[in-house]
Input
Amino acid sequence: MDMKETSIDQIDESNYDVVIAGAGAGGLLTALALTAEGKKVLIIEKESHLGGVWHSYYVDGYRVDQGLHIITRVNRGSFAEFMREHITPPPEFVLHEGWFFRVHDKVGTIPTSVGETLRWPLTGMKGRLGLAKIGAKIKTMKLEEMESYKDITFLEFMQSRDATNQVMLDVMQSAIYMAAGVGIDEASAYEALRTLKDTDKESSKLSSAKKLLVGSDEYDEGYVIGGMQGLIDRVVEVIEGNYILNTPVEKILVQNGKAEGLLAGGRKLEHNTIVSNIPLWSMPNIIGSDSPDVIEFFDKWSTMKFTQGVTIWLGLDEVVIGDRKSRVIVHPNPNTWIISLSSFDPTCAPEGKELLGLATILPDGMTTKEIVQQVKDNGIKEYHPEILEHIEMEHVQTSYATRAALIPGQTDLDRPGPKTPVDGLYIVGTDTAGSGVGLQQAANSATGLVKVLLDEL
Ligand SMILES: Cc1cc2nc3c(=O)[nH]c(=O)nc-3n(C[C@H](O)[C@H](O)[C@H](O)COP(=O)(O)OP(=O)(O)OC[C@H]3O[C@@H](n4cnc5c(N)ncnc54)[C@H](O)[C@@H]3O)c2cc1C
Output
């Protein structure tokens, strides 16, 4: 195998079982799963690289990823499972050493048991008792009950339970923002609760009770050796088919309610099985149909709110942090998540140097430049001044991270995919279907799509 690049004027579309528009995580993982089923794919991508917002590049000798990529659930999650199932040997993930939340001079981890909660250094006893109560409630809550909170925000949920200790809410704000891309005043309570409970499945009564009492220190977040680009290269090696770069799909053609092909690079390709990984916000301009139900479907789903990430990459001329802790500065503002990526994978920095990734929120009305300055002036200057003395490379990224934020009305229970009102046209990606965020969600959406597609092919 090994998917090869080709060009639009060289291909014969009848050689492929499926045509995929867009080579983001959703498109590539769909191609990978279809390969395992003996299918051959053609991928058409508008940019000059594969992967969409999932990729890496070099800046002054440092290999940076798009985004701050601690991959969630590297042991138990669907993305890592997808990799293990399809890639041999599977990619090597290195776990981080846990979350450390700073509230001014105090640092605490996420308490994982009642005992730990009652010793939590970040609040006084009243706050700890409140946290123990709400923590026990969340840990033992069934998925079904969580689903009933899908249309309220996490903050509303906490207020309805009188869990309003400010330090506790501030720490949860940081944790949920880092995992879900939106704050607690916006995140759907259902999605936030699932994130905090860290499970898609129900655990047995016995194991929930045990975790509640003695806690659990297994971390399931990590980085991958070789970075995001290394992962994409491995995925591409396995796919059976071809890809075309620098070629936007201009129209997806529909005839009598069925997909009949697409227009790209000045050519019409005829095909009845099309998977679109194009963001749903672009689809009203791409779908070539005058049927009211098709137009209504794509109009409705084109207005979803996305999440936006700011990542500040710092190359340091010597190793300053040198460990694999996830440090979150909750106060002073702004919330900042600091990771030493080169401590996970030394190949992302020149020898003897260190690559740090700092992620933060871009508040409405603020420029990226202003937020970067605030990050440096506040928490970093106060608690890690040595970082500022060793910066030799600085690179800032802003991008959408996930195409639909996990807010009320946009949870995995509300998503439209993988089918569309057009026969033979399917949708995949982080705004179409799938639980979790980021790569988990892309993997879940691809799994759901391939299941439906194989039934219909
Ligand atoms: C700042 C940031 C931080 C992140 N942090 C994490 C993290 O820590 N952990 C994690 O798991 N995930 C993280 N992610 C998220 C994860 O990388 C993305 O959510 C995921 O890759 C998005 O996949 P998608 O399928 O929705 O595709 P997208 O990346 O949106 O892909 C869509 C593809 O379609 C192409 N396209 C669009 N229009 C057309 C057209 N007309 N014709 C042809 N092609 C077209 C695009 O160029 C793109 O390649 C982060 C992402 C960012 C940017």
User: Anything to note?
Assistant: The radius of gyration is 23 Å. The longest helix spans residues 438-456. The longest strand covers residues 391-400.
